[in-house]
Design goal:
The chain contains ten helices and nine strands. With about 280 residues, it is of the alpha+beta class.
C-alpha cells in the first residue's frame, strides 16, 4: 500500500496497489509500485511475504523506489520472518514489523527502526510516561515475561544447527538451513497437491515462503479444514485478514480458502499425509 495524498491532509489519503486483481493476485511487482509513488508519497507499506500464498515481493527494489521519492518504507515481515534469514538494513526497510508467535515465541510483536527514525516521530502518550526513544512508543510497562519468551525463542532458533561466534551469526546460519529444509518439504507438498482432481491453488510466482492456500470443487473451505482437523491435520480456512486479496479474487464472500503452512518441525511423512488426506476429500 502506498500512502499517496491526492489532496487534503497527508494523513487522510491512502492508495492500494491493484496488483492482486490485475496480475493474477500472485505477486506485487516493483514496476507497479513505481507507478503509484510520486513526490507527494510519504509512506510505502508492503508485505515481505503473503500469508495466503507465500509470495515474496522484491522489497529491496520497492524500498528504493520509495526512498527516491523521499518516502519511508514500512515492511510487514510477520509471515516472512519465520522462514527466511532477515537483514532489515539490506531490505531497505525504515520500519520492519514481526510477531514472535510466528517463530516459536509468545504473542508479542516488535517494530524495528533506527533510533534516528523513531526520534522524528511523536506519538500521543501520557505526560507521565517516558519521552525517550523507544520508550515513548510503548503502552506502559512492558510485559517482562513475554520478553523473556522472545529471548528463549531466538535462542531456540539460533541453536538449530547454527554456526558462528555470535548469536546473530548462529541465527542467520540456522535460518538459512531452515529455509533450505522447508523448501524441500514445500516442493514435496506442492507436488502432492498439484494433480489432485478438482483442486485450485492460490497462484504464486518466484520466491515464496512455504505456504499454500487451496480450494476443492464442491466444498466450502471451512468444510475441508474441518474434515482435515478430524484427522488431526491442522489447517485454517477463511481470509486470514487478507481482505483485499480475497475480495479481488471474488472469494471472500465464499469462504476464502484452506491454508497450509510448513515449519521447521514438520516432516516429509506429515507433508505426504496432508496431500493424501486432501486427495481423499476430493474424490
Amino acid at each position: 500500500m502506498c500512502h499517496r495524498p491526492a489532496s487534503g491532509p497527508a494523513s487522510h489519503r491512502f492508495r492500494s496497489s491493484p496488483t492482486a486483481a490485475s496480475r493474477s493476485a500472485s505477486r506485487f511487482c516493483a514496476s507497479c509500485s513505481a507507478d503509484l509513488v510520486n513526490s507527494r508519497t510519504r509512506l510505502v507499506a508492503v508485505t515481505a511475504a503473503s500469508n495466503v500464498a507465500g509470495s515474496c515481493p522484491d522489497v529491496r527494489t520497492i524500498a528504493a523506489i520509495a526512498h527516491r521519492a523521499g518516502a519511508l518504507c514500512y515492511v510487514d515481515g510477520v509471515h516472512a520472518t519465520p522462514h527466511l534469514p532477515i537483514d532489515v538494513a539490506r531490505l531497505g526497510a525504515d520500519f520492519y514489523v514481526t510477531s514472535a508467535y510466528k517463530w516459536s515465541g509468545p504473542h508479542i510483536a516488535a517494530c524495528v527502526a533506527a533510533s534516528q527514525t523513531w526520534a522524528g516521530l511523536r506519538p500521543q502518550k501520557l505526560v507521565a510516561s517516558s519521552d525517550a526513544v523507544p520508550d515513548r512508543f510503548e503502552f506502559g510497562t512492558p510485559s517482562f515475561e513475554l520478553l523473556a519468551g522472545v529471548t528463549a525463542a531466538v535462542d531456540h532458533l539460533a541453536a538449530l544447527g547454527g554456526s558462528g561466534t555470535s548469536r546473530r551469526q548462529q541465527l542467520i546460519s540456522s535460518m538459512t538451513a531452515i529455509r533450505a529444509y522447508e523448501a524441500y518439504l514445500f516442493a514435496e507438498l506442492l507436488d502432492g497437491l498439484a494433480d489432485i482432481p478438482g483442486i485450485w491453488l492460490c497462484p504464486a510466482e518466484g520466491l515464496r515462503c512455504p505456504t499454500v492456500s487451496f480450494r476443492l470443487d464442491g466444498q466450502s473451505p471451512a468444510h475441508t479444514a474441518e474434515a482435515l482437523g478430524r484427522q488431526n491435520i491442522c489447517t485454517f480456512a477463511g481470509d486470514y485478514y487478507a481482505v483485499e486479496y480475497f475480495t479481488a479474487l471474488g472469494l471472500r464472500a465464499d469462504g476464502g480458502a484452506v491454508r497450509a503452512s510448513i515449519y521447521h518441525y514438520n516432516t516429509v511423512a506429515e507433508v505426504r499425509r496432508l496431500a493424501t488426506a486432501v486427495r481423499a476429500l476430493a474424490t
